[in-house]
Design goal:
This protein has 262 residues and is α/β, with parallel strands linked by helices. It is 40% helix and 16% strand. It has a seven-stranded mixed beta sheet, sandwiched between helices.
Length: 262
């Protein structure tokens, strides 16, 4: 679909119409298929998309900043007819999710932030780990991803590298190197610290106690600065939401359904 000057690949899995639809924002370089284990555990409508330069969405001539990408997502949802959604962001996608909640307060009802931080001003992971993040090879080469899984992601990835190979192997297309670098640039020029106190939506922050990329202190910062946030620290690493979806998705579902039940 053509949206705000970009061709965006998206997917809508219809579910229980009584529940607010959930938008999933993927991590850096990850196509929408990577979050399929999460979708499989949900019974509500789920909307996924590839940001420009990732998966089936071609990169633009120039990089898009996080606010611009939030605008593209808002227009996509408007074209699809969605006026109120919940938003979940994983890792890099957590930056986009925070921006959406701040920029479009009437659109976003509830917010879920998983394995993410405040952008360029967050507490960084190990330098050696972050250097490995500069290359998109782990998304285009599932075997390489499996070999590096424990080192990069921690948690269950240390013992179950084959699960990482399976997850990344689902992608139809891995996207372009230029698109990956554009995403890196967008994150390097963005921080949510100034506006976190202005995010008023109920927010669930999920963070792992063994995450080499996003240390657990970043989850504490998010939960401490967002006025209506709750923090859940789980045992595991950076991609536990994907590799251990049956364990973590019920926490998310309970949080999202809480207001609708009342």
């Amino acid at each position: 679909m053509a949206v705000a000057g970009r061709q965006i690949r998206y997917d809508v899995r219809l579910g229980d119409p009584r529940r607010t639809p959930l938008v999933l924002c993927c991590g850096i370089g990850a196509g929408l298929e990577v979050l399929q284990p999460v979708v499989d555990e949900l019974d509500r409508t789920v909307i996924r998309f590839d940001v420009p330069g990732v998966g089936g969405s071609p990169a633009g001539l120039l990089p898009d900043g996080i606010p611009r990408l939030a605008g593209i997502v808002e227009r996509l949802l408007a074209e699809l007819g969605y006026r109120e959604v919940d938003v979940l962001g994983l890792s890099w996608g957590g930056a986009l999710a925070q921006q959406l909640a701040f920029q479009y307060r009437r659109l976003v009802r509830r917010l879920v932030l998983v394995s993410t931080g405040t952008g360029v001003l967050m507490v960084p992971g190990r330098p050696s780990t972050l250097m490995k993040m500069v290359t998109p090879r782990r998304f285009g080469d599932p075997s390489y991803a499996a070999g590096m899984a424990g080192y990069l992601y921690g948690g269950s990835a240390r013992k179950h590298s084959n699960a990482i190979r399976t997850v990344f192997g689902r992608q139809v297309r891995a996207g372009s190197r230029r698109g990956y670098l554009y995403q890196l640039a967008a994150g390097a020029c963005w921080t949510s610290l100034p506006f976190l106190p202005l995010i008023r939506q109920p927010t669930l922050v999920l963070t792992g106690d063994d995450d080499p990329i996003i240390p657990v202190v970043n989850g504490r910062v998010l939960a401490g600065l967002i006025p209506n946030a709750e923090l859940h620290i789980y045992r595991g690493g950076h991609v536990e939401l994907v590799t251990e979806a049956p364990a973590l998705v019920p926490l998310i579902t309970d949080f999202l359904d809480r207001e609708e039940r009342s």
